[in-house]
Amino acid sequence: MAEYDLLDKTELRLEPVTLENANLNHIAEAIAGVLGLEGTDVMVTDVRSETLTIDILKRGVDAHNIIGKRSELLEKLSELPGVGIKENTSISSEGMLGWIVLDYNEARSALERSEQMAREIRRRIAKRAMVFSTGIEVSNRQIQDTNAPLIKKRLEAEGYSVTVGPTLKDDELLIAGNLRQAIDNGYGLIITTGGVGAEDKDHTIEAVLALDPEAAAPYVCKFRKGTGRHHKDGVKIAVGYASESLIVALTGPNDEVRSSLDILIHGLKSHLSKGMLAEELARNLSKMLQEKMGSHGDMSV
After folding, report:
1. CATH code: domain of residue 35
2. Containing structural domain, residue 23
3. DSSP class of residue 62?
């Protein structure tokens, strides 16, 4: 379905139209039926002189249900009791609803071309990736950033165009702002590493949730909150969507990032949901932690 946002241009005007004891609900239902909408999606908002104004209450409509529908719409209205349609009755709109009056074959051809262009744009966006490393120790160059080069190399081998973004300090607003900017700049895949721990300085998961409140954020391991430096009750990773961009927040240790890449690539190729991808990543990391740490009094995985 080629659904287009009406961009608040939701009015249709029909004129001249004569009404005599006509049922406005029946008019709305007839128009909805022609345009492939629910009856509740259409409302007659004004009847003035011989002008009938219709408002589409749905934000987006299927373009294929609109183009070339002038004659069908006027015919349906003319069948209603009390509705008079004349030979010179016109339909107009300031927005895409005006496609109703276009020639069907010409409009459909143009629509198919635009849809093909849109698919190509989405395909290119999906293959553009931005990688962020986080952490004051990385931004201050106390430790070498080994994650971003690793992710860049692997994604490029999979046909992605990869940009390494600036190293982000541990600040939720800063991280969220950089993620939003990457989204707005047309990066379809955004990966962060670090800042997902249980300390009060770790804010990456919160930044992802700020952009996608329904992001999948499963635990990698849990702690007893308040023990040691554990400000939070565990380590999480996150997978979310914002606009058409996939955001993946991974842990910081290089071996964990390396181990996550195969799962991430498989998930991308398989078009896994954010929930399924997040669970697979978290399950693998939990297993790694079990092997690394064994039994630990403050931690459960």
Report:
1. 3.30.70
2. 3-118
3. E
